Amino acid sequence: GRTIIFFIDDLHLSLDSLGRTRQMLARFIDQEMVETDRVVIASPSGDIGFLQQFTDNKTVLRAAAARLTQKPYNVGDMSRESTPMSEYMALTIERKADPRVFQFYVDECLKTAPPRYPRRSCEVEVINRARLILLQASSVIVNTYTSLESLMHSSSMLPGRKLAFFVSDGFLLETGSRSAGTRDALSRIIDEAMRAGVVVYTIDARGLISGQLDATNNVPVDMKGRLESASLREIPASQDAMHALARDTGGRALRNQNYFDQW
């Protein structure tokens, strides 16, 4: 039989993505799983509890899948500024990679600032806001990595090769110099997976995405196009970690398709 791991990153999963993930799990349990398979459904939030175990019992797996819930992932800050700033935009500001992104947020800060508010003060606000967002993002990523590393370690006690599906909406590979541990944590997971004989296939549960404003997201309105270049890089940047995890364990990174249950 097969040993199969479904790691559902519910700390980075929208409600829409969770619905597609549940459909995929239901299809696998009902139509693809055979009696000799050993399967586990796991998540970093801990909501699955004692049902997070390798089993050949479909009833247990259905109950585990039913416990998956969407965790509102909204990395934010205490700034008075209401213009949304994504983690990638914060990273761009932190690295000074694109001055136009920094200037956009400084100008947005000045729009809501009191009269005669110094521009320098808005610059400091934007820098501090970006740093806080990256620190929060790093904390959530580390929680995901810790759970995944533990799962890779426990799977090493099972014989033979294993197949793992890592399902997530994506996150940054790096979150700046103040939280460099995320890259090291990913390297440890890859090493643990290779020792345990686990091949990881990563699935971007967002499906086809454009990065433009729609009913599922909240992006800033940029009339001058200063965020355009950074926005084009944002989606690939959110997939880099999943791509590295799949590539270095011998799997594939599966993305840009709304229906991924066939994978």
Explained architecture:
It is built from seven helices and five strands. The protein is α/β, with parallel strands linked by helices and 263 residues long. Strand 3 (162-168), helix 6 and strand 4 form a beta-alpha-beta unit. Helix 3 packs across helix 5 (119-155), helix 4 crosses helix 5 (119-155) and helix 6 packs parallel to helix 7 (228-249). The protein is elongated. The two termini are 19 Å apart.
Quick recap:
By secondary structure, the protein is of the alpha/beta class.
Mean pLDDT: 89
Rg on CA atoms, Å: 20 Å
Would you list the SSEs in sequence order as H and E?
EHEHHHHEHEHE
Strand content: 5-15%
Terminal residue distance: 19 Å
Tally of helical segments: 7
Low-confidence stretches: none
Class per helix and strand makeup: alpha/beta
Helix percent reads: 40-55%
Tell me how many strands there are: 5
The coarse silhouette is elongated
Specify the biggest β-sheet: 5 strands, parallel
Key features of this structure:
263 residues, alpha/beta, 5-stranded parallel sheet, 7 helices, 48% helix
Helices and strands, with pairings:
Elements: E1 3-8, H1 15-32, E2 38-42, H2 58-66, H3 87-95, H4 99-112, H5 119-155, E3 162-168, H6 181-196, E4 198-204, H7 228-249, E5 253-254
Parallel strand pairs: 1-2, 1-3, 3-4, 4-5
Helix pairs in contact: 1-2, 3-5, 4-5, 5-6, 6-7
